[in-house]
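Progress against Task 2.4 (sequence-to-structure conversion) is shown through the following example record, which the project officer requested during the mid-term review.
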Amino acid sequence: MDYSRNSQKKNKQCRERELLEEYLNQYYAGRMKKAQLERRLKNIKQEMDSPIGGYGYSPVNYGGTNKTGAGAASFVYRISEIETRIENQKNQVEKSLLKVMDIMDFLEENSTERMVLELRFVDCKNWTNIEKEMHLSRSSLFNYRNKGLEKLLGFKKVCQILKDFECRI
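Structure tokens generated for the chain above:
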């Protein structure tokens, strides 16, 4: 009986930690989505600016002159739609950053745990770059990350924020 309680408690802690990491990762995910939309917009604009390709092009008209396609209007519509999505994503990214920073404020300002978490979730650095910047081994970084996450989960306000977040996903 005691073993099953410990197992349930461990599973709950593991789930809470995963949820916290997912919450903290929303800024990074938003930035990646925005970058993807910007690349898509750039590709569409390049496609519009490029001349009609010569491959498979035939100067002879074989009929079908009364057929109309979406043409340039389709590009303009796609560009407008993507620009709107980029603007919405920018707003979402800004909100996500504020949410992540609010959570980080629960940790001591100059603590190593906070520094590791900020480099990962705010500055969006990979573990290799964080290792180099902090002059720590990967296992030490993970230990500080885990300690930071555990400290954050010790705050009732953080747990409430995570419950609200879990209901939305």
